[in-house]
Amino acid sequence: MVMDFLxxxxxxxxSWLLLAGSAFMLELTAIYFQHVMSLQPCIMCVYERLVMVGxxxxxxxxxxxxxxxxxxxxxxxxxxxxxxxxxxxxxxxVYVQSNYTPETHCDLVPNFPSWIPLHEWMPWMFQxxxxxxxxAWQFLGLSMPQWLVIIFSVYSITFVVFLVPQLLxx
Length: 170
Description:
One of its GO terms (molecular function) is protein-disulfide reductase activity. This is Disulfide bond formation protein B. Belongs to the DsbB family. Its main location: membrane. By secondary structure, the chain is mostly helical. It has a single domain (about 1-165), classed as DsbB-like (Bromodomain-like). Helices cover about 70% and strands about 0% of the residues. The protein contains 7 helices and 2 strands; from the N terminus they run ααααααββα. Strands 1-2 form a two-stranded antiparallel ribbon. It is elongated and about 55 Å long.
């Protein structure tokens, strides 16, 4: 019964809008932190933002026609890839913050492909200006990357919860 609900819900636009909308709200929050609260993003923050764009894209692609498998499956794959990349990046970011030494440093220029230099096209969003080891903000005792580990883990778990019913034959 639950599996049927999850399988059916994944083929409705609302599910994909929730994915895109939640990631979009988190992206807006990051922009608010940067431009209103003056918390400068480091290169890891920029990559984490790009992962959020992947989640937004997965949701928007899934909205096109979620009843069609050829739309739903690429959306699922982008969702899963983005969520897992997000967990990995956020965990690395937490490690850098927790184990800072003078030798620990992050690049200053993002490693985007030459054909899509996001930091040049959209510097207000993708240009790193902060340092990875700095903890400039905390909420309930957790830094921003620690919250992102939780957030991306929730996206990853939700991905699995919605993927499994798709794989089961009924």
